[in-house]
Amino acid sequence: MERLAKTxxxxxxLEAQKSSPLYAYWSKQIAEDRVxxxxxxxxxxxxxxxxxxxxxVQYLANKGNHPLKAYYSNFxxxxxxxxxxxxxxxxxxxLYKNDLIACFQTKLVQTNELNRSxxxxxxxxxIAQETGKPLTLIEIGTSAGLLxxxxxxxxxxxxxxxxxxxxxxxxxxVVYAENLxxxxxxxxxxxxxxxxxxxxxxxxxxxxxxYEWMQALIWPEQQERKEMFRRVSQFNKNIPxxxxxxxxxxxxxxxxxxxxxxxQIVLFHTHVANQFNESLKQNLLTMIETISEQYPLYHVYNxxxxxxxHVDFVSRxxxxxxxxxxxxxxxxxxxxxxx
Length: 339
What we know:
Blueprint: H1 2-16, H2 21-30, H3 34-40, H4 49-63, H5 79-95, H6 97-106, H7 117-131, E1 135-140, E2 154-159, E3 162-167, E4 174-179, E5 192-199, H8 208-216, H9 223-236, E6 242-245, H10 248-256, E7 264-269, H11 278-292, E8 297-301, E9 309-315, E10 318-325, E11 334-335
Parallel strand pairs: 1-5, 1-7, 2-4, 4-11, 5-6, 7-8
Antiparallel strand pairs: 2-3, 8-9, 9-10
């Protein structure tokens, strides 16, 4: 229990403090509450316990009429209010213990961070300009496939004394970010011919339950993000793509055998490879080299060797580094562009 208590204290101080005062406060209280810690111990070791616990509570609270539901829309930070919110949380957990355990055993912490498209769009634009070809996008760890739609979003990127706008300027999905580095002067539209996503667990946003779970994974105070997710979920239904549940090592080579050679393959994954063991990482690189003997491709990734964002071109098994971005936000809120 001591180890679990420390997990919630770290979550409060390092993750939730700036983004969710409610979760930060609850986490501190949970660290001292043995009854709640015992319940939370039912969460599988493979899942981040604070995230899965809070999402499960929010998911169930949104479905019912318990007073706890009110705390997800009113963000008073007074001590009296926070104390009352935690008492309500404890009451809720007592009433819905079995439902919460069911969530722990069946749900996953699996987000789909739309804002990462703020740096992927300029990268893909450069690739399209360099090759003069439409793109075939293949994403590993695609979740609901929202990043595969990135050419259908509008972008407003703050730079020093200006704001750059690019992408689909008619879109009602607007991605905001800040560029701290070299100016994004050459970003232009590009054509995406194919959109392919692979994941061990594809999220189908057409299913109400899966949509509601993804909403519950967003922290309460992040209301703009919740609204953005609502918009993009509706948007997502109208953009054709192939989403495959299974092993990317088996699927990707078979898919590429039938690909249109007039397109440029871009294989990408963000904040996924940290979940791979060393063997899987090596198998991924071997697969890419094998594919490159016949189909040159770009590999855009992070967390494979380090936290940096890499853009590599692989042709006839030879890898050439095209770009390396060392300073960026994991959620895509800022980056330091490098030409």
